[in-house]
Amino acid sequence: xxxxxxxxxxxxxxxxxxxxxxxGTALDKIMEIVTDRALVLARxxxxxxxxxxxxxxxxxxxxxxxxxFMGMRLAVKNSLSGECIDSREPLICNDAxxxxxxxxxxxxxxxxxxxxxxxxxxxxKSIGVLKVFSKTVDxxxxxxxxxxxxxxxxxxxxxxxxxxxxxxxxxxxATHDSLTGIPNRSLFYDRLRQKVSHLTQKDQHTxxxxxxxxxxxxxxxxQFGHRTGDxxxxxxxxxxxxxxxxxxxxxxxxxxxFAILALSISDSADVKxxxxxxxxxxxxxxxxxxxxxxxxxxIGYALYPRDGKKIEELIEYSDRSxxxxxxxxxxxxxxx
Length: 336
Description:
Layout: H1 2-22, H2 27-41, E1 46-53, E2 56-64, E3 73-75, H3 80-87, E4 91-93, H4 104-110, E5 114-122, E6 125-134, H5 142-162, H6 167-175, H7 185-202, E7 207-214, H8 217-224, H9 226-243, E8 249-252, E9 257-262, H10 268-282, E10 287-288, E11 291-292, E12 297-304, H11 311-335
Antiparallel strand pairs: 1-2, 1-6, 2-3, 4-5, 5-6, 7-9, 7-12, 8-9, 10-11
């Protein structure tokens, strides 16, 4: 039975390898695949790829209960991840509350009781870790180490191929969407967390979080195919990016979902002007391979601190606002 289980996991690794190869150098997508599959293979409850950024580790890809910690930063020092990076060996923590190597405060905030951490080594350097964790003690052993070592080998190889020139390019590809070239979900949450943390400590300066969702994107894919769908995503990203003030972060956070961390906004009037500019720009004609492709988006927003002081509150409020806007625009379209 043990041999059969091992064979099944090896077949799963081969399947993952095939999926990774299909992504080319799209490092953000590769990290998503690895965290999702690591969660299942190690029977954990949360998984994350943490990448080094100077003296900190950034949650750059997440799965399971780690989802809400996307973009979180932790000090490299005095953590199990830091020790893993230094030793370049897999490490297991069976009980976070009684392990002197771990950052207990961080473990408590995430809710983990045990974890397994493996180094990600690229071009001879430790550049981060793959971490899988559980809300119960004693969840991992040697079997999980063996299967996850195969996974880290796959992601390290992908990172090596993605790093064409230097190490800074690796971090760029890990934090930017491979299709549109704009910041991805990881970088958006990283910057949003830093902004909220800074303002909580210093002042209550207003800024905006905008949620954008493409209207009719499925219809574009169904009618013209995925090449046209990809072109529509790229064009939408280009148009919005060009009109945003410098200092605002425009990100692709999902399939046809985008978000803006709008530091240039100070009140609802600013939001209204930004939305009008985006709608006007998106409404311009777009042609791809002799097809006229109709582009449209629905936009919702939240203002800090009026609509929330926590990241989750701001995102939830902005998303609700966006769906209300989408319903409104659909109703208006039916009346025309």
